[in-house]
Design a protein that fits this description.
By secondary structure, the protein is of the alpha/beta class. The chain has helices at 52-61, 107-116, 132-143, 149-156, 185-202, 223-232, 252-255, 259-279, 300-309, 325-340, 374-383, and strands at 3-16, 23-25, 65-68, 92-94, 99-101, 120-125, 167-170, 207-210, 238-245, 287-295, 345-350, 360-362, 368-370, 387-394, 397-400, 404-407, 409-416, 421-428, 435-440, 447-455, 474-476, 480-482, 485-490, 494-502.
């Protein structure tokens, strides 16, 4: 059996983990809201119409921040339609996904739901079909205490205290040809600068996210980032990254190598931010908000059919990817990549949360269940709070069709000083060989094995359903610890959580 040697030292710190790296995303798209988090009349619905079974699964994930209401949806979002008495709200054509938006769930409902799942709101403003004035009006409605037009409007809607939303996105994917109100680099740079200036006059305590490129392969990447930051650098706090991966070609070896592309994407955007910082002689550092990431490719044909041939439905079954075991490995790899870059990635949103490319699925008349990708995100959120440490990992490599030679093992170590625990997340993306992992952790002193959690399957295409959970984690005792070194076997095609703690 080939050996992988890893060295971890508590002195060599990357950065503390910002808990918002475990964020997620709810868009008015498909069944994410209607039939997902909100379904009055369902047997599990509470007094607000929120599904209790979904809330329980979300609370288990411990998601600290949730982006809302889009996504592409936000570029034609009229926030005024989503507030006030439900009986007075009117349906509207939703142009991004060619659906009918009933507006029976809006800003106030989302705020109540977010509070019930212990999450903060990350609000997006419409810079596609609207602009500065509407962004300011929405912020005044949400955050100003009282005594003005929009703060008093909120109070007439029964919300006496302000929402105090602290994190705001300045539009969504404004470089995309699919985006309503698409902008050039200079147009968005100027618009985001002036919007940011105005919003921070209303509430100087908010943080703002500037739109980065829609994904790494956009023709204007990374010039978009360089140009737009030239305008808004001193007014924004983060720049967004969006990226989805998939195995459309059926090449599983190369599919799992795509997390290396994500690493390169992060490093490139970081470099551009620092270039603009140097050019402006600024003391301010722009960090990253990776506020859309996931696997997305299974449902592309259904998406095109519904939006083209069956438009103007309310909550059609859009983007309902059914994830398999190899998708869970890919999500684990992407989560590891985000953690490895915790010095600059401060916010990340798994897109999305329920039904739409999501870890949680619902049945309209039945229950809710965990997709395969639920588990690596759950483990990272539960055990990945603390400080990311630099690790030196000497891994064997294998050949891929599109990425050349790549490492078999991708891993990250997170140290919790509070619990005196060292948690190591690792994916063996070698689909044919088990590997022996040796961890040199002598700097930690006397430690013992707490547990090893692993997900394995002989079938890369195995899926979970409401009635059968074919992919789930198991607890293993396969850790040997002696003389400050730990050993364990990382099985072929596996997700692993190795938990080590202080010996008392």
């Amino acid at each position: 059996m080939k050996k992988v040697k890893m060295t971890v030292d508590k002195v060599f710190v990357v950065a503390p983990v910002d808990k918002r790296i475990y964020g997620s995303f709810i868009e008015h798209l498909g069944r994410a809201v209607y039939g997902g988090i909100y379904q009055p009349g369902h047997e599990s619905a509470d007094e607000d119409g929120f599904r209790r079974d979904v809330m329980q699964l979300v609370k288990e994930l411990d998601v600290p921040v949730i982006r809302y209401p889009g996504g592409n949806f936000v570029s034609n979002f009229f926030w005024e339609d989503s507030v006030g008495p439900i009986s007075e709200r009117k349906p509207r054509l939703e142009l991004a996904w060619r659906s009918l938006e009933p507006n029976t769930f809006g800003l106030g409902e989302f705020s109540r739901w977010a509070a019930k799942v212990n999450a903060e709101m990350m609000m997006a403003v419409n810079l596609g079909t609207r602009g500065i004035a509407d962004a300011c009006n929405l912020l005044e409605y949400c955050n100003h205490p009282s005594g003005t037009k929009y703060s008093e409007l909120r109070r007439t809607h029964g919300v006496e205290e302000p929402y105090n939303i602290k994190l705001w996105c300045l539009g969504n994917e404004m470089d995309g040809e699919w985006q309503l109100g698409r902008k050039t680099m200079d147009e968005y740079g100027r618009l985001s600068e002036e919007t940011a200036k105005a919003m921070k006059l209303i509430d100087p305590t908010i943080e703002l996210v500037s739109c980065g490129s829609s994904f790494k392969d956009m023709p204007t990447f990374p010039q978009w980032e360089a140009t737009t930051l030239e305008y808004n650098y001193e007014y924004v706090d983060y720049i967004s990254l969006h990226q989805y991966y998939g195995n459309a070609t059926g090449d599983s070896w190369d599919y799992l190598a795509q997390s290396d592309d994500m690493e390169e994407f992060i490093h490139t955007v970081t470099s551009v931010c620092d270039f603009v910082k140097a050019k402006k002689r600024s003391r301010k550092t722009i960090n990253l908000s990776f506020d859309e990431w996931n696997v997305w490719f299974h449902s592309k044909a259904e998406e095109e059919d519904i939006t083209v041939n069956h438009a103007w439905q309310t909550a059609p079954a859009l983007l309902e990817d059914h994830y398999n075991f190899e998708d869970a490995l890919m999500v684990g790899l992407m989560m590891i990549t985000l953690l490895k870059n915790a010095d600059r990635v401060k916010i990340a949103c798994l897109a999305q949360l329920v039904n739409v490319i999501a870890p949680i699925m619902t049945d309209a008349k039945g229950g809710a269940w965990k997709q395969t990708i639920y588990y690596p995100f759950f483990h990272a959120s539960k055990y990945g709070r603390g400080t990311v440490l630099h690790t030196v990992c000497d891994s064997p490599v294998h050949e891929t069709s599109g990425h050349g030679m790549v490492a078999d093992i991708v891993s990250v170590a997170v140290f919790s000083e509070e619990r005196e625990e060292l948690n190591i997340f690792a994916v063996n993306r070698n689909l044919a060989e088990d590997l022996l992992l040796e961890i040199d952790m002598r700097s930690f002193g006397d430690y013992q094995a707490i547990e090893k959690i692993e997900m394995i399957s002989d079938d890369l295409k195995a899926e979970n359903t409401l009635f059968e959970e074919r992919v789930k984690p198991y607890v293993s005792g396969d850790i040997r610890l002696e003389g400050g070194k730990a050993e364990t076997v990382l099985k072929k095609a596996s997700w692993n959580v190795i938990r080590l703690g202080k010996l008392y």
